Amino acid sequence: MVDVLVCVKRVPDSSSEVVLTEDAQAVDGRYAGFTMSAHEECAVELAVQITAGGGEATALTLGDADAVEQLRSALAVGCTAATHVVADASTFGPADVAREIAAVVRAHEADGRAHDLVLLGNDAADSGDFQVGIRLAYELGRPVVNGANVVAVEDGVVTAHGEGPDGVETYRVPLPAVVTIREGGVDPRYPSVPGRMKAKKVPVEERTPATEPAGPKRVRLLLPPPVPSTVQILGKGPEAAPAVVDLLEELGVLSPKKVAQ
Predict the structure, then answer these.
(1) Could you say which DSSP state residue 26 is in?
(2) Prediction pTM value
(3) Are 3 and 118 spatial neighbours (Cβ–Cβ below 8 Å)?
């Protein structure tokens, strides 16, 4: 039996146009909506799979009151408990977040709810921070594996597989441990209507931050330059038909015209 703590973050939906806040410190999600990152969706799925044979999968987030939506999403697909550190996430840097997660792990352990494995997304979908997993492992004195796609636990050992420069890499570390997850290894399940209804009834533990955050140290975020595009006007009306045919042949959609002998 393994107890897993899976950490999630409320982030803007990146499927639409990315817009930065006025201070360029974060992605503005007011018009795009909010969600959980793909990395963390996979981490939640792995937590549910690992605890399917016994154990508890607890979802944890640090954020404002609206962040409970992401906790409810994790509960709807199989997590059995949730903890919410209520705070303004924009004032927390990676080191601050790692300390808060460590504080929750220690508090739960003192209450008899030890978390054998902590899963996190490999990096934050909004700010790109990828330090939290390593800082958390250092804070707790645990081994860490970064960028795993698939994780399994057996006989007190975590086996993690991830894509390396020369192919699939496999790591085995003893519990308790920390693992950061990249998307692609598992297919996250979608919450069902009964799952959502059940998630609404699960009590969410609320906590205040254990320490005063030092804040993020980033200078600013930058958007990549737009991909250049060109437009070719083929013509107007029926007169453009031959040019369209020529273009389709050039693209390989149509076979080239046969010349009459």
Answers:
(1) S
(2) 0.80
(3) no
Write out pLDDT tens, residues 172-203: 999 999 999 999 999 999 899 999 999 999 99
The dihedral through the CA atoms of 136, 138, 142, 145 has a sign that is positive
Tokens of 48: 């549910």
Rounded to whole angstroms, how far apart are CA atoms 167 and 187?
21
Do residues 26 and 168 touch, judged by C-beta distance below 8 A? no
In the sheet where 177-181 sits, what is the strand order? Answer: 144-148, 177-181, 117-121, 4-7, 57-63, 81-86, 204-207
Domains assigned to the chain = 4-207 (3.40.50.620), 231-261 (no CATH)
What interhelical angle do 193-201 and 68-76 show, nearest 10? 120
Q: Which residue has the tokens 């979608």?
A: 190
Q: Which two tokens stand for residue 189?
A: 């399940």
* Cα–Cα distance for residue pair 187/194, rounded to 1 Å: 20
